Amino acid sequence: MILGLDVLDTSSTHKDKALFTPGPLNTSGPTKRAMLRDLGSRDDEFIRIVKDVRSRLVGLGDGHEEYTSIIMQGSGTFGVEAVLTSVIPQDGKLLILINGAYGERMLKIVNIHRIPTVVLRTPEDTVPDAEALRETLQSDPAITHVAVVHCETTTGIINPIEEYGKIVREFKRVYFVDAMSSFGAYPIDLNACNIDYLISSSNKCIEGVPGFSFILAKIETLKKTEGYARTLSLDLYSQWKGLEGDGQFRFTPPIHAILAFRQALLELEKEGGVTARGGRYKRNYEITLSAMEAMGFKPYLSSDYRGYIITSFYYPAHPIFDFRRFYELLSEKGFLIYPGKLSHADCFRIGHVGRLHSADVKGLMSAIAVVLKKMKIKLTE
Ligand SMILES: *Cc1c(COP(=O)(O)O)cnc(C)c1O
After folding, report:
1. Pairing state of beta strands 18-19 and 145-149?
2. Residue nearest to atom 3 of ligand 1 (CA)
């Protein structure tokens, strides 16, 4: 017996908690098992897998030959930082449309790198106004790049990226979309939206494990950015050149996360692609919403802004409601929900994404009813 290695249990006999969060999410058994390998980063097999993953990713974005995909080590934020610091020239200027925490995070990134930036800030319960975008571009010709979040995971609001993209195209500016929490579950036509850079990550709607972000980039725009990078490790252009050249990463790749991701991509195709996956998430959302409303909870966003990725609910207006306790009692029952992230309202969030089906959602809804009873909270008459 070697050093007690036999105690390593990879068969997972216990059931993990159901994650009603925006990611990392529950993944399938085959996706987890795809990681039980040792592959060298310069191995031909691995290089072929990376190539396959990259071409499948481009296929998901309805982008065809005009786009390429670049895998970047690190979580989603590393991908956002890679784009923001790699493609804006020294004399460039960025406009960020902000209506939540992830838009604010982009601003933090560019401030650290001292990239000249203006923002158009909108309250978290409304989408940025397209006319205000047009006026800002008209009045400030120095703006070269525009950035926005598609699904602001802060609230679950869906921003109209196609409408903004048409305006950005009119002014011939470069357009970034953080589609981290929506890509793979909302169809995104890269051409119709005029997207130059779309950013997402391995552990959201594709249902892989954490480990990397990926960027879908319009080749024509990306080609012009050689030498723009302000960091070494997040240099998007060099990363792309490496992957296009000998197919290798410049630095240690997240091999296991990529193996899992390829399996997750195959499962996405088997499920019926982006539309079918979006359909499953939408059903999860609808079951959640109707059961929560029946129990007396109120969603934060008005219905025209709500998406099917994640929903924010107000804390119930009940004197003894304690979110911490609510959360812990649900966790004991095997369900993890998500705290809120709003600046001005007390909310919690329930995600609809990941390897969760109607039965899991109904399980959470029954658990919430039981927990409210246990907390002696009655919200409806
Ligand atoms: C998850 C997410 C990110 C990235 O978060 P990481 O924790 O760095 O993976 C960025 N933007 C949005 C909209 C997200 O939902």
Report:
1. unpaired
2. 76
What gap in Å lies between CA 197 and CA 199, rounded to an integer? 7
Final residue of a domain: which of 224, 241, 269? 269
Sign of the alpha-carbon torsion through 298, 299, 301, 306 = negative
- The residue from 212, 243, 269 where one domain ends is 269
Q: Which residue has a Cα nearest atom 4 of ligand 1?
A: 76
**CA 376–ligand 1 middle distance (angstroms):** 36
Per-residue pLDDT for 322 more than 80?
yes
Specify the pTM: 0.95
User: Which among 338, 345, 337, 358 has a CA at the least distance from the CA of 301?
Assistant: 345
Residue 181, ligand 1, Cβ within 6 A: yes
Question: Does residue 262 share a domain with residue 236?
Answer: yes
- Tens of pLDDT along 118-149? 999 999 999 999 999 999 999 999 999 999 99
Q: Name every residue whose Cβ is closer than 8 Å to that of residue 7 and which is 6 or more positions away in sequence.
A: none
Rounded to whole angstroms, the Cα distance separating 72 from 68 reads 13
Bridge partners of 73, per DSSP, are: 212
Of the residues 78, 102, 106, 353, which should be mutated to test ligand 1's pocket, given the most ligand atoms within 8 Å of the CB? 102
Predicted confidence (pLDDT) per residue in 28-39, tens digit: 999 999 999 999
